[in-house]
Amino acid sequence: MERWKPLKIGELIARKPLIQGGMGVGISLSSLAGAVAKEGGIGVISAAQIGYKEPEWENNPLEANLKAIEKEIKKAREIANDGILGINIMVATRFYERYVKKAIESGIDLIISGAGLPTELPAYISGSKVKIAPIVSTLKSIQVISKYWERKYQKQPDLVVIEGPQAGGHLGFPVDELEKLEKRNSYEYDNEVRQILDFVKKLERKENIKIPVVVAGGIYDKKDMEHYIELGADGIQVGTRFVTTYECDASREFKEAYLNASKEEIELVKSPVGMPARGLKNLLVKEFNKPDKCYQCIKKCNPAEIPYCITKALIRAVKGDVEKGMVFCGANAYRANKMETVKEVMDSFFGKH
Ligand SMILES: Cc1cc2nc3c(=O)[nH]c(=O)nc-3n(C[C@H](O)[C@H](O)[C@H](O)COP(=O)(O)O)c2cc1C
């Protein structure tokens, strides 16, 4: 008997309760998201500087990003026409509202937003059927967003993503806490997960609605998945494991950097945007990415004060310059030892359904 069930987010039903985490810059675009959606999971495109390949990019990053949102959603639909597609748009992003509206216009099913709490998201989606999910890392965050949405918009999240300390990219914890958690066993964070699940269960009863919860961060295989399903999660969100798939949108060199990485080479870095992040050890990033212009990514960044430009560092990496670029990854990236197809990854979690 399988312990997992399809993931229901209102009228959206994913045959397999797996959301592929949005990965910027350019790591999860239409090819990866489309393949995951086709296999019965939820494929997620990352909106972070999605337009970096467009001709407008250097002169008008906003226009390039808007154009690419439409293009990538369309291409992912062509791969998985009846699959479920989401987009990850970080709250900290400049022009957040414009990207949200463009994604809705382009027919996205689900918007997932972290790197801050998406306080005004219900206003931006009003009149559409799109589903919305905050990414939270603490009980406090889900309590705040749920109360705020209820009071201002009479709305609750359609889905909650709990992202733990083993995730890749920018993380929602202070560095000292991450370091503490890293030293202890990997299930240290379970207590917070339980409290969030408990809070959501009570909310469901109070509002008489169903709010599915998925857990992200360090889930690499079926055993990791079963651990969270046993805790009471409705599903999982997985990022790192999908990077070493043939369908992933990153360059071959980026994927090889994962295949070659040892545990010791994965470290916490202080991103110039003020949040801690996890990536591969790399001493050259700062030297080669001095900010000479601004690509308008994060609201709070001040180009005059930062040691290097995170947009430039991430674009270098996705294109294949893994020495001078920033290779984000989850704590489990060292477990990657072979290239796989998305179908193989999905089957390893769910069997051949
Ligand atoms: C290369 C990479 C880039 C990521 N970029 C983003 C991002 O732009 N926005 C975001 O909310 N999460 C981002 N994440 C987090 C993932 O969506 C996902 O939740 C997380 O990595 C799950 O943990 P796992 O990688 O251990 O499976 C990124 C993760 C990786 C590995």
TrEMBL record:
One Gene Ontology molecular-function label: nitronate monooxygenase activity
UniProt keyword Ribonucleoprotein, yes or no: no
Pfam families (UniProt xref): NMO
Keywords attached to this entry: Flavoprotein, FMN, Monooxygenase, Oxidoreductase
PANTHER family listed in its UniProt record: 2-NITROPROPANE DIOXYGENASE
Role noted for this protein: Nitronate monooxygenase that uses molecular oxygen to catalyze the oxidative denitrification of alkyl nitronates. Acts on propionate 3-nitronate (P3N), the presumed physiological substrate. Probably functions in the detoxification of P3N, a metabolic poison produced by plants and fungi as a defense mechanism.
Name used for this protein in its record: Probable nitronate monooxygenase
UniProt source species: Velocimicrobium porci
